[in-house]
Every structure is written in C-alpha cells, then in structure tokens.
Amino acid sequence: MGGPSTPTDLKGEILDNDDFLVRWRRPGRPAGPLGGYMVSWKCPGAEEMSAITTENQLALKDLPNKGTNCTFLVKGFNLGPWDHQFVGDSAEFTFQLPERSPLSFFEDHDEDSPPPRA
Length: 118
What we know:
Strand 1 (about 10-15) and strand 2 (about 20-25) form a beta hairpin. This protein has a single domain (about 10-105), classed as Immunoglobulin-like. The chain is built from 1 helix and 8 strands, in the order E-E-E-E-E-E-E-E-H. The strands form 2 sheets. Strands 3, 4, 6, 7 and 8 form a 5-stranded antiparallel beta sheet that branches. By secondary structure, the chain is mainly beta.
C-alpha cells in the first residue's frame, strides 16, 4: 500500500459570509482506503496553517491579509496497518483574496463612534 495520487480540480471561492471554501476531487488512484486529506494554507505575513478533513472541501474562516495571494495545498492519505499513514503528493494553487471594499468597511461602522483613521 502506498499514498494516493494527487487530488484533482483544486478550486477556491469566497462564500457570502467571507469564509473561503477550498474544494477538490478525490485522487484518481486512491491506492487503498482513503483516510482523509491534509489541507494547508499560507498567506504572506501569516504563519502556515493546516487542517485534516475526510470531506472533499474545507471552509476556512478569517483568512488574513485581504488583497494578497494565499497558497493552498491538499494531499490525501491512507491509513495502513497499525495506523501507519501513507501520504500522497500535494495539489497546489494560489488564490488572490479580494480586498475589502471601503463601502463594506463603513457598513460595519457604528454611526455613534468616530470614523477610523487610516
């Protein structure tokens, strides 16, 4: 038993609540029972983060640095005898997070408090 092949069709999208959804298709060659996926992401100026999921998608909250390019990696893994993990190769893509518009900034602003300073 070895690691699965690379997940395919890796994509990302911004959801209505500003969460970011990463989704992919399962590897064409799972090479055994697929245990799940390791997802990691890195945005400039922030530390690398990671999560494990058994789904073909992962919703991420509060990504830092709007307006920057964040890199996402997804790799599948199999669980072998004695809980040994066989990890496959990573699929990778970069996504530019949109900047927050000035209008949405002021929509969140309380009218009774002073405006923010630049």
